[in-house]
User: Fold this.
Amino acid sequence: MQKIEHIGIAVKSLETSNEVFQKLFGEAHYKVEEVESEGVSTSFFQVGPNKIELLEATNPDSPISKFIEKRGEGIHHIAFDVVDIEAEMERLRGEGFILLNEKPKKGADNKLVCFVHPKSSNGVLIELCQEIR
Ligand code: ZN
Assistant:
């Protein structure tokens, strides 16, 4: 793994939270993107070298709906940049981590992604991200 690619924050309303985080960072989000397969609408903020992703559920079965029901709004996942996602998935499987995706799938912001079950990583949902070249 190379570095933290972004931190994902679950929110009830992108519209409301975009304003909150715009005030916090002093700058507006640079992109909004819906990821239909995940049932989420996302917005991205650039903060110096770092990225923050806000996630709002687009349907009641979305993982974000379930997360907010159980735990309320807040930090949802930490994403790490990887060079070769397949190799990294293979390595993590070998180390006994539970992967939530059989194969990498298309995520927001031009990435191939795979999630690691929080049960196998001390309660933290981890996302692997590989830039689609
Ligand atoms: Zn993410």
